[in-house]
């Protein structure tokens, strides 16, 4: 828990005793109420008010009074005045302030993940009519989630919202749902494989600006890197600091491992820090991940004071994030249709899009068409006569990476955890969190639910759920040596869910950056959105949202051309 506010009432207040956070039982005659408070600081001590001598006597005799548990999150950081946030806000406002179209465009969008939802939202803001088609019966794409028969949710992935996500943060504000993000302390917490059950922390002091807060966080941590290793890594980073964005982009051709060795950085730095970071960013190891990805993340985290500060959504993404976007779209005349899987992109004689044919046999026509699905889905549905066009042919190198998300409900509350994201540093697992602590909707005072990202998953994606759970429990036994054993002789599994995504975000391997397409395709009236398209935040939720905004921007910019094109087609049809 973030904090415990433990109090009992009496008629008068004599004195107060400050306590640190801890786990305490409640007495049977006191209601045990749980309340999460947003936007409150956790930097204060928690206090027991009591009012008479008998209460003091009970405390002295170690007789615990009834307790009230209140979980308190950290306040939302000051993001609104950062350069990136203001740039994102300006782009958002451009849709609301653009001239109202005399003839709103009907824009048919395939895919109701964050990219498709973002595209539809900002087109609706600009006065157009999006028609959003989702193949499945659930919103969210890579942030989809499902409710089981017990009423518990399980998700496609473990989703973290960073302070360095300016377009996502703007989106929450525009929807009026900033209070749905549960901000955690500004730390990065790593498990210590050589010390089972122990963790090492990078704590970013609030009093310092960037990059000093990040530098101090690294310098203060002496458990993972030695001073000589820190110095060599810092020297290795100097070209990136001096060279800026041009240098960062030029490193796309090198893997993380290759770049580290080229810069003279000890392999132990990669082992201790960047295996975990690579798996968290793209679900692959440093020998595969492009160094550009790491440098972009480090730039965001070190140049923005709150860039690496993390928040969890307060509940399941389809209801707590996606539905507010859908409500916004529909309130402005747009449509969102589930169970609308596209079977074929039908073309006109000139090679432009005529319609989307659905599996149901329905034909959906519009003025403009957008594909906001994963790149692998697009490639499967590409018309044959588009495949040799260089814009589309380059997509062959972009391939989704497999990932597995594991949820395990235990029969007890695990103690060796934090109200935060944790880097497992396990060969099989990436990051994990006890969602019974970190998320309001999933809170449980008596039992833990661990959500874990199983990565790299390529060798495991075809294996059975039971095999994956057995392997996960073996790793958890190292993270919780006193509480979990592989044979369940300690904490026992109540239930589990395994969610496999054979093709998730695009695999950010070296030399794939030139293959990422712009949102405006060479096919008139056809556009793309998705984190694999060209934008500066790579494969992430922020990248998906930004890609949707850029796609909507391209359509708004092309409005006059698109209207004229539509009128020309109408004239041709009339003459025929």
From TrEMBL:
Keyword Oxidoreductase: yes
Essential cofactor(s): FAD
Sequence ranges assigned to domain Amine oxidase in this UniProt record: 114-555
Coiled coil (UniProt feature): none
Gene3D superfamilies: FAD/NAD(P)-binding domain
Keywords: Carotenoid biosynthesis, Chloroplast, Chromoplast, Membrane, Oxidoreductase, Plastid
Main location: plastid
Enzyme category, top tier: oxidoreductase
Signal peptide as annotated in the record: none
Catalytic activity: 2 a plastoquinone + 15-cis-phytoene = 9,9',15-tri-cis-zeta-carotene + 2 a plastoquinol
Pathway terms, separated by semicolons: Carotenoid biosynthesis; lycopene biosynthesis
Compartments, record wording: Plastid, Chloroplast; Plastid, Chromoplast; Membrane
EC number(s) per entry: 1.3.5.5
InterPro entries listed in its UniProt record: Amino_oxidase, FAD/NAD-bd_sf, Phytoene_desaturase, Zeta_carotene_desat/Oxidored
Any single GO CC term annotated in Swiss-Prot or TrEMBL for this entry: chromoplast
Membrane topology: Peripheral membrane protein
Alphabetical list of Pfam families matching this protein: Amino_oxidase
GO BP: any one term: carotenoid biosynthetic process
One function term, GO molecular function aspect: phytoene dehydrogenase activity
Subunit structure: Homotetramer.
Protein family membership: Belongs to the carotenoid/retinoid oxidoreductase family.
Protein's recorded name: Phytoene dehydrogenase
Originating organism: Populus trichocarpa (Western balsam poplar)
Lineage of the species this protein comes from: Eukaryota, Viridiplantae, Streptophyta, Embryophyta, Tracheophyta
